[in-house]
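User: My advisor, Dr. K., asked me to get a structural model of this assembly before our group meeting. I'm new to this, so sorry if the format is off. These are the inputs:
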Amino acid sequence: MEPDELPTPDAIRPPGGPAGSAAGGAAGPATGNPVAEAVAGGTGGRPGHGEPVLEIRGLVKHFPLTRGILFRKQVGAVKAVDGVSFDLHRGETLGIVGESGCGKSTVAKLLVGLERPTAGQIRYRGEDITKLSGRALKAVRRNIQMVFQDPYTSLNPRMTVGDIIGEPYDIHPEVAPKGDRRRRVQELLDVVGLNPEYLNRYPHQFSGGQRQRIGIARGLALRPEIIVADEPVSALDVSVQAQVVNLLERLQNTFDLSYVFIAHDLSVVRHISDRVAVMYLGRLAESGTDEQIYDHPTHPYTQALLSAVPVPDPEARESRTRILLTGDVPSPADPPSGCRFRTRCWKAQELCAEQVPPLEVPPRFATPDAGPAAHPSACHFAEERQVVPGE
Amino acid sequence: MGIVDSPPGYVTGGEIRFRGRDLLTLGREERRRVRGTGMAMIFQDALSALNPVMSVGAQLGEMFQVHRGMSRKAARAEAVELMDRVKIPAAASRVGDYPHQFSGGMRQRIMIAMALALEPDLIIADEPTTALDVTVQAQVMDLLAELQREYHMGLILITHDLGVVADVADTIAVMYAGRIVETAPVHHLYRAPAHPYTRGLLDSIPRLDHKGQELYAIKGLPPNLTAIPPGCPFHPRCPLAQDICRSERPPLHDVAPGRTSACHFWKETLDGAR
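Assistant: The format is fine. Below is the predicted structure of the whole assembly, which you can bring to the meeting.
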């Protein structure tokens, strides 16, 4: 798997350079300007990966609820995504975690342009792609590709693997001249660890893990800069899951990809992510580096979520404390006022029902010596609490 | 439970001794009487395991009507009582609701209530929380553990989640390709697995101290059950495989009191060889 197997044309790469810290992403966590940092999506990316490739600002997606057949009228809206902002830096992996129905997958669809946002901006290298259409949009889409959750339904059963992986070239013929496609598809199969001779097989002839590799190969075909992976390993067996996670990490290093990695499995997200954002009911509850989120969570929802994850270590059975939440996630069609988590939160007070807590470094932690607790957390009463037993 | 569809599935050998009686020798009707009162099952997907056109009260009450010969009214009262036990809020007003009106976690609670109804000695829970979110999973597992203590029931928990078993189980049996390959008390199994497959499973879980490194992955794929490899079924994927593994199926060796392992090289595995 040499890096030059699939050489990346300079044309689709931004010139690497010191453009970096302009958006404030590379600034340290405690510079005393918490708001600016919170808006910029938290603390810096990895060293050497300064500039943000994707800047999300106030992203909103409401799905209208209508009543009546002849005279349709809107009676409400499912607020799937309701004001989400973050940055994705070049070469980094941003993990988005949350429970089902929190809007993770809608964010993924918005990012790749499968859904149009109700409001907000998605800036790809400075340009708001939500306003684009036609040829310009098509060009952008080439650089933001998606890997889907279910490798059984996301591959057309009546197309051969060669056609599936080669189809992106029909839509973007400028990437590969016609005569060259077969070779490219075989290269891609090789890159994802499948036998290049399997070109003429159909998806049903492959196992789940192999199918997910096919889905990844299709995502790579146009040599995108960003891959949005929506629960890419959730449908796979534990032993096969590790193989696919390793593949994704290797591809990231080889092709300098940026990942938005969406999953509900917190341990997988921690393993692969540089930064993590926790979503609850259409909003971000907390964001920061993997260490900040997992070892120094300050939002009660993050704490409850982390404490609920079963730890594969029977020794920890007695020692760890579990935060058991009451009730279920409220409906996104009728979310609670103020803080969305307040209906299940043990800290909730009147203030929580009245004011929406902003996603920013809580004032009490905005001091130079606050340490890793100083990261954006949308809670009026944020406080640090270690819930994952240290290893 | 004796609910494998036949055809195509037949039990072709072995015995299942439950309270001293071999269940496989029982007649259909006798077997039916064991289900529910002796042992009960919790299924993975509550939405498809519950009848969508019967209210949950009627489904719970059915147990009492069929097995205890109660009247419909008394059975309904029992159903409310049960729903209360599994902590469904406002049980009395929700007893007439249908499964689709409940959330995933609540539906799983109803499944648990149904299994508990006749106070069986044994509950078999097949991936009871796999379809649930982690915070709800924690609620449901907590409830299950609490009720198990309260009723002194045996619990067979079937799951692929190594975290959930570590939390709940006393003894673990690891299965591979239709056979048990290792049994051990939970603490021993996680500390020092005696079968390479168990070791591989444990090593492929992402851990804090391995961040940034490649995850350990068991190579290859689980075998097709119509063509299980000869010898040890795990040998094509096993890092310790030798010639003997390709030709001879390892018996279940006694590794320690209460521990067995179906591996020719269990000693080496226990000592940490890869």
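One thing worth pointing out at the meeting: Chain B has a mean pLDDT of 87.

User: Perfect, thanks a lot.
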